[in-house]
């Protein structure tokens, strides 16, 4: 019984790591798009 709950805990931890990694990647993409947009809007030539 203890081994089963341990494996479930590990599965949850692994999925959380994947989830947080995805969130970090998404935030990085949004930041890059935001920076490009600001750069283009402030570009005077």
UniProtKB/TrEMBL annotation:
The species this protein was found in: Daucus carota subsp. sativus (Carrot)
Annotated GO biological process: negative regulation of cell population proliferation; shoot system development
Subcellular localization, as worded in the UniProt entry: Cell membrane
PANTHER family linked: DVL FAMILY PROTEIN, OS01G0525701 PROTEIN
One Pfam assignment: DVL
Family annotation (InterPro entries): DVL, DVL/RTFL_small_peptides
Family: Belongs to the DVL/RTFL small polypeptides family.
GO cellular component: plasma membrane
Keywords: Cell membrane, Developmental protein, Membrane, Transmembrane, Transmembrane helix
Coiled coil: none
Membrane topology term: Single-pass membrane protein
Main localisation: membrane
Protein name, per record: Uncharacterized protein
């Amino acid at each position: 019984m203890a081994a089963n709950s341990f494996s479930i805990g590990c599965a949850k931890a692994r999925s959380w790591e994947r989830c947080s990694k995805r969130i970090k990647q998404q935030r990085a993409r949004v930041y890059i798009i935001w920076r490009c947009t600001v750069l283009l809007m402030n570009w005077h030539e």
